Amino acid sequence: MTDFTPPPGATIEPNGLWAQFLTESKSAEKRPALFLDRDGVIVEEVEERYLHTPDGVTIITGSASVIKRANENKIPVVIVTNQGGISQDIYDWPDFVATQDRILEELSRDGARVDAVMASPHHPNGKSPYGHPDHPVRKPNPGMLLHAAEKLTIDLATSWIIGDHATDMMAGQRAGLEGSIHVLTGHGHHDGERELALAVQSETFQVHGGDSIADALSIIPFLK
């Protein structure tokens, strides 16, 4: 891992955050963004602990359609994913890159484009240098969203996040987003998870329940 060099457009920040910008999507004016959790939202979760091989990638129905609609409406699409398996030595950065490349390839076949990928390798049970009890760039903390917003001139107050964990909703709320959708794919169908997600709603932050990412087309204002 010490000899790993990120591909063009990607960096590993001093705080450990993987920040990859795939398009020239910086704007002179702030605009909303669509933040997406990865596993369980864009791609199916795998039976083993973490998805970390290209052969394990299966795109969830509706993912490409939602991302493509955002592309058409000039809305930046940002993947924000906890990848704690890296800090636990379950896989490494090259495995993450190979898996992520396959995801992007599959989406591209259906005309969908992701603008940026943020990944946190940190985990409370992880090893140095990424072991941390509550790192600012690991969801439910908002660090990944805030970093993307700064680099891409994103208006957080009109942005949305889709996730299958209540922690995705928490990250969106803490970042000051307009709203979120909790989906039942992936971890979302586990007992009590929908209730935890809906409990994050407040006067300034919306939480909607959906079956899958496909429901975003009828919920999120900038995708309708």
Characterization of the model:
- It is a single chain.
- It is built from six helices and eight strands.
- By secondary structure, the protein is of the alpha/beta class.
- It has one domain (14-223): Rossmann fold.
- It starts with 9 loop residues before the first strand and ends in a 5-residue tail after the last helix.
- The mean pLDDT is 95.
Which key features would you list for this structure?
alpha/beta; Rossmann fold
Short description:
The chain is α/β, with parallel strands linked by helices. The chain contains six helices and eight strands. The chain has one domain (14-223): HAD superfamily/HAD-like (Rossmann fold), CATH 3.40.50.1000.
Strand order of the largest sheet: 1-2-5-4-3-6-7-8
Biggest sheet character: 8 strands, mixed
Query: Per CATH, what is the topology?
Result: Rossmann fold
CATH class: Alpha Beta
CATH architectural group: 3-Layer(aba) Sandwich
Give the low-pLDDT segments. Answer: none
Mean pLDDT: 95
- Global outline: globular
Question: How large is the share of residues in beta strands?
Answer: 15-25%
Helix content: 25-40%
Q: Secondary-structure element sequence?
A: EEEHEHEHEHEHEH
Question: Helix/strand/pairing class, anyone?
Answer: alpha/beta
Helix and strand arrangement:
Blueprint: E1 10-12, E2 18-21, E3 34-36, H1 63-72, E4 77-82, H2 93-109, E5 116-120, H3 143-152, E6 160-163, H4 166-175, E7 179-183, H5 193-198, E8 206-210, H6 216-219
